[in-house]
Amino acid sequence: MANSITELKLQNLTVKYGNATLLENLFGSFKRGQINLIVGRAGSGKSTLLRTLAGFHKEFSGEVMAEELPFNPSGNISLVFQNPEALFFNGTVGEEVGYALKMRGLPTAESEQTSRKWLQKWGLDPQQCWNRHPLELSGGEKRRLALAACTVFLPPVVLLDEPLAGLDMRGQHALAEMLASMASGHIVIVVTHEPELLLAHSSSLLYLNSGGGFWFSPDDFLRQALGKSDFFPLPEWYKCAVTPYCDVAALPQIDASAVHRFIKSRRCADADQL
Question: What would the CATH number be for the domain defined by 1-76+155-216?
């Protein structure tokens, strides 16, 4: 089943925490191919939903389905918590990235070969870092190592809680590109309160609010946020620049260069119509 999971479906999913109902009657799906985003204000249930999908939070009713069967997260998911580098517990980078393979009984030589290739994929040179202590790495390198260690066993579903937090802009852009690449072969679900960098790589967005869940395409999400000031906070410069064009089918991403190109093309189109 693991290799064939292309979609997770929520069917009337209701998530509780004690006597409180956090989320109610969620329907929708997360698909392989592009990043799936979960956004919402603090306390909206984002992280709890992620833990529910991972099988750690048991207080729910309804179903999570995979390929028309109830989804069994055991062995099929990797959950990357906020600041995952805080959970390092091995003495070297090589031991850290290879731990999951060791626990699955892979021979040492095969585990090391796979681990070295996986470090390289995540932008870490195994020749330089294999025998270093994980805490000796830079902030961005630690995050890449943590993500490599969580995904080296190739789980079909990868769940990430605020993976861009604490990284500088360069690190955020690099990591966004890597997650987008991973999404081509895995169902990647990202919880974030700052979706700007990931919208360009997203196919769907689940917005949690007041106990409910609402699914949007990236364009529809931006259009809704432009039209309602209390829906989701967007940068003021973006709202000022793009609001006059919010009825256009394809809106630019929250990036200065993209907005500049968008406005320039709209002005040229308007001029041609005169």
Answer: 3.40.50.300
